[in-house]
Amino acid sequence: MQKWSSFSALFFVGKLKGHFQGSASGVPAEKRNGWVNVGDLQGAIHFKIVRYERIKFLVVGLENSIEIYAWAPKPYHKFMSFKSFGSLSHLPLIVDLTVEDNARLKVLYGSHEGFHAIDLDSAAIYDIYTPPNPQQNMVPHCIVVLPNTNGMQLLLCYDSTFLILL
To answer: Where is the CNH domain (predicted)?
Structure first.
């Protein structure tokens, strides 16, 4: 009769547990743990998940660019690259996404110079608000798309100021 040491019994139980969790079937560890890498991103400053109808978007503000991912349902079950805007003249500190008139997707972002928008159809970047005193670096706190406005009205908060854009 063979004697089992405590180490071999623990190893056997651990291997058995791993088999039931799917490690023996080749499922990557990150999927077993409930997370998956999204792209090859480094230097993320801010992110926002926005749901529009049945689509989820992940908007990520990096050190000098903005990446947008869309959720791909079965069989992928992960965010896939949708759009990318690099070499921005204003470095994003906060990001958001809105859908204007149920048709046009726009990325909104705040920087030290003000608040800006990117039209996803044309890739046009424009200012939506710049503070009256451009000598000081402003600190954006939040961008809120006001409800029941078709994405056309915003509440912008920076420093100790809030502003409603109609």
So the answer is: 28-161
